[in-house]
Write a structure and sequence with these properties.
Layout: H1 6-11, E1 19-22, E2 26-30, E3 38-44, H2 52-58, H3 60-77, E4 83-85, E5 101-105
Antiparallel strand pairs: 1-2, 2-3, 3-5, 4-5
Helix pairs in contact: 2-3
The protein binds adenosine monophosphate.
Adenosine monophosphate is lined by residues 6, 15, 17, 31-33, 41, 87, 93-96.
């Protein structure tokens, strides 16, 4: 069996994180290396999907819930405007192969891509 992802270890409580919201399917916490005034990660509790392409094909309703969650959190923690980033593949900057959305808000420049 493969090792749990770092996000599964956060979900299980093994590794601490600053969790801002969760339900049965999703968890949201602050990125440990923020690249904007607000930088949250929205992560499915299942590690079944490696990237957004797999998630869109396998569970589009869960992807839609991630987007709605991002919007809600951006309204609660910033002014409601936000950038949503899914890095897909190592050469695109993905380092954790457990699908997650970067929610970036506040002080964004054109260069501040996650
Ligand atoms: P990506 O590079 O798109 O796969 O994004 C992975 C993100 O996870 C990076 O922005 C990291 O800073 C973040 N990250 C890694 N470990 C932790 C952790 N223990 N707690 C919070 N965020 C983390």
């Amino acid at each position: 069996m493969s090792e749990p992802t770092i996000f599964s270890r956060i979900i299980s409580g093994e590794i601490p994180a600053t969790v801002v919201w969760q339900n049965e399917r999703l968890i949201a916490f602050h990125d440990i290396a923020p690249r904007a005034a607000l930088h949250l990660l929205v992560v499915p509790k299942t590690e079944e999907y490696e990237n957004v392409t797999d998630l869109a094909a396998g569970n589009p309703a869960l992807l839609a819930e991630m987007v709605a969650t991002a919007a809600t959190l951006a309204a609660e923690h910033a002014n409601g405007d936000y950038r949503l980033v899914f890095n897909s593949g190592a050469s695109a900057g993905q380092t954790v192969f457990h699908v997650h959305a970067h929610v970036l808000a506040g002080g964004l420049s054109e260069e501040s891509l996650a």
